Amino acid sequence: MNDLLRPSLYDAFHKIEEVNKNNGPRKKYNVVGPICETGDVLGKDVELPPLVKNDLLIIHSVGAYGYVMSSNYNTRPKAPEVLIEDKKIKLIRKKETITQIMENEFNNE
What predicted TM-score, i.e. pTM, was given to this entire model? Predict the structure, then answer.
């Protein structure tokens, strides 16, 4: 929800696929976010190959609203943004740090 609000807010669909094409029979997964809210669901019944810890997923077509609609709920840093164009990957926004969040919350003088 705090990384990508659109599926929870609008029931928006975003294609989800694995970065590394693993072999094996595909099965259905619920792809969820990192916070403890029932609405933090990015995709339901997404067909993917067998996944293991630290596998990466692509959530397609997040667009410009992903970042501006994100939040720091549960003190979660905002996610980095990556642009994939012509098979080239470019970091277009760095991941926010806890230090950056705290700088906005406390007077450190």
Answer: 0.80
- What are the beta bridge partners of residue 46? 29
- Backbone region of residue 39 per phi and psi (left: phi > 0; alpha: psi in -120 to 50; beta: other values): alpha
Active-site residue (options: 10, 20, 21, 36)? 36
Q: Greater confidence, 48 or 2?
A: 48
Which residue ranges form the domains of the chain, and what is each CATH number? 6-105 (2.40.37.10)
Nearest Cα to Cα of residue 44 among 66, 4, 16 = 16
- Find the angle CA(46)-CA(49)-CA(54) to the nearest 5 degrees: 90
Check if 37 is active-site: no
